[in-house]
Amino acid sequence: MTILYGGAFNPPTIAHQKIIHYLVDHYPEDQLILLPASSSYRNEIISFEHRKNMLKLLVGLLKHPIEISDYEAKQSQFRGTIETLIYFDHPLFVIGSDQLLAINRWISFPRVVEDNRFLVFPRSGIDGDDYLMNHPILCHYRDHFEIVTDFVSIEASSSAYRDDHELNMIPVDVEDYINKHHLYEVK
Which domains does the chain have, with CATH numbers? Predict the structure, then answer.
Protein backbone atom coordinates (compact mmCIF):
# COMPACT_ATOMS: atom_id res chain seq x y z
CA MET A 1 0.00 0.00 0.00
CA THR A 2 1.08 3.59 -0.60
CA ILE A 3 0.61 6.17 2.14
CA LEU A 4 0.66 9.78 1.00
CA TYR A 5 1.26 12.53 3.56
CA GLY A 6 0.72 15.92 1.98
CA GLY A 7 0.97 19.39 3.40
CA ALA A 8 2.66 22.73 3.06
CA PHE A 9 5.38 21.74 5.55
CA ASN A 10 6.08 25.46 5.82
CA PRO A 11 8.20 24.69 7.88
CA PRO A 12 7.99 21.05 8.96
CA THR A 13 7.34 20.88 12.71
CA ILE A 14 7.79 18.38 15.51
CA ALA A 15 4.13 17.42 14.94
CA HIS A 16 4.92 16.48 11.32
CA GLN A 17 7.95 14.56 12.56
CA LYS A 18 5.89 12.66 15.12
CA ILE A 19 3.28 11.70 12.48
CA ILE A 20 6.03 10.46 10.14
CA HIS A 21 7.50 8.34 12.95
CA TYR A 22 4.05 6.93 13.68
CA LEU A 23 3.55 6.02 10.02
CA VAL A 24 6.95 4.32 9.82
CA ASP A 25 6.30 2.36 13.03
CA HIS A 26 2.72 1.32 12.20
CA TYR A 27 3.07 0.74 8.46
CA PRO A 28 6.63 -0.60 8.10
CA GLU A 29 5.92 -2.58 4.92
CA ASP A 30 4.18 0.26 3.08
CA GLN A 31 5.56 2.96 0.83
CA LEU A 32 5.52 6.39 2.49
CA ILE A 33 5.52 9.46 0.27
CA LEU A 34 5.72 13.01 1.61
CA LEU A 35 4.11 15.55 -0.68
CA PRO A 36 4.94 19.21 -0.11
CA ALA A 37 2.33 21.45 -1.70
CA SER A 38 3.23 23.64 -4.62
CA SER A 39 4.61 27.07 -3.74
CA SER A 40 1.73 28.52 -5.75
CA TYR A 41 -0.81 26.88 -3.43
CA ARG A 42 -0.67 29.80 -0.98
CA ASN A 43 1.20 33.10 -1.06
CA GLU A 44 3.12 32.68 2.20
CA ILE A 45 4.71 29.36 1.24
CA ILE A 46 8.48 29.50 0.76
CA SER A 47 10.12 27.71 -2.14
CA PHE A 48 9.55 24.02 -2.67
CA GLU A 49 13.31 23.35 -2.57
CA HIS A 50 13.68 24.80 0.94
CA ARG A 51 10.70 22.81 2.23
CA LYS A 52 12.00 19.64 0.56
CA ASN A 53 15.44 20.16 2.13
CA MET A 54 13.90 20.65 5.57
CA LEU A 55 11.85 17.46 5.14
CA LYS A 56 15.04 15.59 4.25
CA LEU A 57 16.50 16.76 7.56
CA LEU A 58 13.32 15.67 9.35
CA VAL A 59 13.49 12.10 8.02
CA GLY A 60 17.25 11.76 7.54
CA LEU A 61 17.91 9.36 10.40
CA LEU A 62 14.96 7.06 9.74
CA LYS A 63 15.86 3.67 8.31
CA HIS A 64 12.55 3.39 6.45
CA PRO A 65 12.77 4.64 2.85
CA ILE A 66 10.67 7.76 2.47
CA GLU A 67 10.11 9.49 -0.85
CA ILE A 68 9.65 13.25 -1.01
CA SER A 69 7.60 13.87 -4.14
CA ASP A 70 7.80 16.96 -6.31
CA TYR A 71 4.54 16.09 -8.10
CA GLU A 72 2.60 19.15 -6.94
CA ALA A 73 5.64 21.42 -7.29
CA LYS A 74 5.71 20.59 -11.00
CA GLN A 75 2.06 21.53 -11.51
CA SER A 76 1.44 24.94 -13.07
CA GLN A 77 -1.67 25.34 -10.91
CA PHE A 78 -3.32 23.47 -8.08
CA ARG A 79 -6.12 21.30 -9.48
CA GLY A 80 -7.27 19.79 -6.24
CA THR A 81 -6.27 16.92 -4.02
CA ILE A 82 -8.45 14.63 -6.10
CA GLU A 83 -6.06 14.97 -9.06
CA THR A 84 -3.10 14.16 -6.83
CA LEU A 85 -4.82 11.09 -5.39
CA ILE A 86 -5.66 9.85 -8.88
CA TYR A 87 -2.05 10.35 -9.97
CA PHE A 88 -0.79 8.27 -7.02
CA ASP A 89 -3.43 5.57 -7.71
CA HIS A 90 -5.63 6.30 -4.70
CA PRO A 91 -3.21 5.93 -1.78
CA LEU A 92 -4.15 6.09 1.87
CA PHE A 93 -4.10 9.87 2.34
CA VAL A 94 -2.99 11.31 5.68
CA ILE A 95 -4.91 14.30 7.03
CA GLY A 96 -5.42 15.98 10.38
CA SER A 97 -8.85 16.18 11.94
CA ASP A 98 -8.73 19.94 11.29
CA GLN A 99 -8.56 19.16 7.55
CA LEU A 100 -11.47 16.78 7.98
CA LEU A 101 -13.61 19.73 9.09
CA ALA A 102 -12.86 21.48 5.78
CA ILE A 103 -13.02 18.51 3.43
CA ASN A 104 -16.45 19.57 2.16
CA ARG A 105 -14.73 22.62 0.62
CA TRP A 106 -12.20 20.54 -1.31
CA ILE A 107 -12.33 20.55 -5.10
CA SER A 108 -14.62 17.74 -6.33
CA PHE A 109 -16.26 17.06 -2.97
CA PRO A 110 -17.87 14.56 -2.35
CA ARG A 111 -16.22 12.55 -5.16
CA VAL A 112 -12.81 12.99 -3.52
CA VAL A 113 -14.21 11.14 -0.50
CA GLU A 114 -16.16 8.55 -2.48
CA ASP A 115 -13.06 7.45 -4.40
CA ASN A 116 -10.40 7.52 -1.67
CA ARG A 117 -9.37 6.44 1.82
CA PHE A 118 -8.05 8.69 4.58
CA LEU A 119 -6.00 8.24 7.72
CA VAL A 120 -7.08 10.97 10.16
CA PHE A 121 -4.73 12.15 12.91
CA PRO A 122 -6.21 13.94 15.92
CA ARG A 123 -5.91 17.65 16.60
CA SER A 124 -6.75 19.08 19.98
CA GLY A 125 -10.44 19.67 20.60
CA ILE A 126 -11.70 17.96 17.41
CA ASP A 127 -13.62 14.70 17.60
CA GLY A 128 -13.18 13.37 14.07
CA ASP A 129 -15.39 10.34 14.56
CA ASP A 130 -18.26 12.43 15.93
CA TYR A 131 -17.90 14.86 13.04
CA LEU A 132 -18.03 12.03 10.49
CA MET A 133 -21.06 10.41 12.07
CA ASN A 134 -23.02 13.66 12.20
CA HIS A 135 -22.10 15.09 8.79
CA PRO A 136 -24.99 14.68 6.32
CA ILE A 137 -22.70 13.44 3.52
CA LEU A 138 -19.60 12.07 5.25
CA CYS A 139 -21.66 9.75 7.45
CA HIS A 140 -22.28 7.64 4.33
CA TYR A 141 -18.54 7.23 3.81
CA ARG A 142 -17.44 6.54 7.39
CA ASP A 143 -15.59 3.43 6.24
CA HIS A 144 -13.36 5.61 4.02
CA PHE A 145 -11.82 7.17 7.13
CA GLU A 146 -9.56 5.53 9.67
CA ILE A 147 -9.36 7.64 12.81
CA VAL A 148 -6.02 7.25 14.58
CA THR A 149 -6.83 6.77 18.25
CA ASP A 150 -3.43 5.81 19.66
CA PHE A 151 -1.66 9.06 18.81
CA VAL A 152 -1.31 12.02 21.15
CA SER A 153 -1.45 15.22 19.15
CA ILE A 154 1.20 17.87 19.62
CA GLU A 155 0.21 21.50 19.58
CA ALA A 156 2.84 22.60 17.10
CA SER A 157 1.91 24.21 13.82
CA SER A 158 3.82 25.76 10.97
CA SER A 159 1.68 28.90 11.07
CA ALA A 160 2.28 29.35 14.81
CA TYR A 161 6.02 29.05 14.19
CA ARG A 162 5.89 31.59 11.34
CA ASP A 163 3.86 34.00 13.51
CA ASP A 164 5.78 33.70 16.79
CA HIS A 165 9.06 31.89 15.95
CA GLU A 166 8.49 29.49 18.82
CA LEU A 167 11.55 27.27 18.57
CA ASN A 168 10.01 24.42 20.53
CA MET A 169 7.77 23.71 17.49
CA ILE A 170 10.52 22.70 15.08
CA PRO A 171 13.38 20.21 15.25
CA VAL A 172 16.86 21.67 15.86
CA ASP A 173 18.13 20.62 12.40
CA VAL A 174 15.24 22.47 10.78
CA GLU A 175 15.86 25.51 12.97
CA ASP A 176 19.52 25.54 11.90
CA TYR A 177 18.50 25.31 8.24
CA ILE A 178 16.01 28.18 8.65
CA ASN A 179 18.64 30.37 10.29
CA LYS A 180 21.31 29.52 7.74
CA HIS A 181 19.05 30.46 4.83
CA HIS A 182 17.36 33.42 6.57
CA LEU A 183 13.86 31.99 6.15
CA TYR A 184 10.75 33.28 7.89
CA GLU A 185 12.47 36.41 9.08
CA VAL A 186 10.34 39.09 10.71
CA LYS A 187 9.83 41.95 8.30
Answer: 2-180 (3.40.50.620)
